[in-house]
Design brief:
By secondary structure, the protein is α+β, with helices and mostly antiparallel strands. It is globular, with a radius of gyration of 18 Å. It contains eleven helices and twelve strands. Bound molecules: adenosine-5'-triphosphate. Adenosine-5'-triphosphate binds next to helix 1 and helix 2.
């Protein structure tokens, strides 16, 4: 018995930091968007638990977020041991929720494979124990994420947009970026947040393309100044609307038209080698992510 689950990556159309909470986490306000770039997570019933990935940057042990999801399910439900094999396509430590998405794939895949009978809401509640981005990765599509990122409110699916991703050859620790946030970095953008929510609701992709926002850019640039330099190179090269994804260092841009995406793709390819052209992923695609 086995399933393969497509574990879609994400970008943040809007990522705002409101302030630090008493529990040490930052209060965030985000608009998350799934992208078609995905890992493949195969889950099979086995004699003992094991996890294997094809990336040297990802642990093949209990620290793997996918294995942590399986262990949590085994603790709480009658579920056998599993062998998990992950084909990584989402860059690691890149601000695209690769690990969170693999964990979400294990929650969804095991629920289907072993008939656990858990609702999406129950899966999302369990998922918050593994990481703040995991509940969104279960829901997918376009959504608001608040609290420390685990409180999800779905939005109308954004119409298909084209996504350019410029991957870096280094990673940045999400924890280090959040630790670097200073009071001077916090400028809550409430008006922009509601304008973007309206734009998503009305399918105004041109507004979205022009108003991406990420409050983590400055702290992430201080953690690793190479990201700021890379962004500047792209802007100087005429690549439009470039923003850092999540806590970085991947840079991305969203385009309403395929024509603009190609024009900018050609410019970016002349500057960097690790470049992907993908597109946003609707909640309908997410529903079909489990392959038996
Ligand atoms: P986020 O956008 O949610 O902050 P990220 O995209 O910046 O996450 P990940 O690729 O999820 O970062 O990896 C973060 C850390 O988690 C790395 O140190 C990585 O080794 C570890 N990790 C554990 N399990 C996985 C997994 N299945 N895939 C990728 N990374 C994993």
């Amino acid at each position: 018995m086995h399933v393969v689950v497509k574990a879609y990556g994400k970008i943040n159309i809007f990522l705002d930091c409101i302030g630090k909470r008493e529990d040490g986490y930052h209060e965030v306000s985000m608009i998350m968007q799934s992208v078609r770039l995905h890992d493949l997570v195969e889950i099979s019933e086995a004699e003992t638990n094991s996890v294997f990935t094809d990336s040297m940057y990802v642990p093949n042990n209990r620290n793997n977020l996918a294995m942590r999801a399986a262990l949590l399910l085994q603790e709480q439900f009658d579920m056998p041991s599993v062998a998990i094999r992950i084909k990584k396509n989402i860059p690691v430590s890149a601000g695209m929720a690769g690990g969170s998405s693999d964990a979400a794939a294990v929650f969804v895949g095991c629920n289907a494979l072993f008939d656990l009978g858990l609702s999406e809401k129950e899966l999302m509640r369990l998922a918050a124990n593994i990481g703040s981005d995991v509940p969104f990765c279960i829901k997918g599509g376009t959504a608001i994420a608040e609290g420390r990122g685990e409180k999800i409110r779905p939005l109308t699916d954004l119409p298909k947009m084209h996504v350019l991703l410029a991957r870096a050859d280094y990673g940045v620790s999400t924890a280090a970026v959040y630790k670097e946030i200073k009071p001077a970095d916090l400028h809550p953008q409430k008006a922009l947040f509601s304008q973007l929510c309206d734009a998503v609701h009305h399918g105004d992709t041109v507004f979205v393309e022009n108003h991406l926002y990420n409050a983590l850019e400055e702290p992430s640039f201080r953690v690793d100044p190479r990201t700021k330099k890379r962004k500047q190179i792209l802007l100087d090269g005429g690549v439009q609307h470039v923003l850092m994804s999540g806590s970085g260092p991947t840079l991305f841009a969203l385009y309403a038209t395929e024509h603009d995406a190609w024009q900018n793709y050609k410019k970016i390819r002349a500057l960097f080698s690790n470049v992907y052209l993908t597109s946003t992923c609707s909640s309908d695609l997410i529903k079909d992510r489990v392959i038996f």
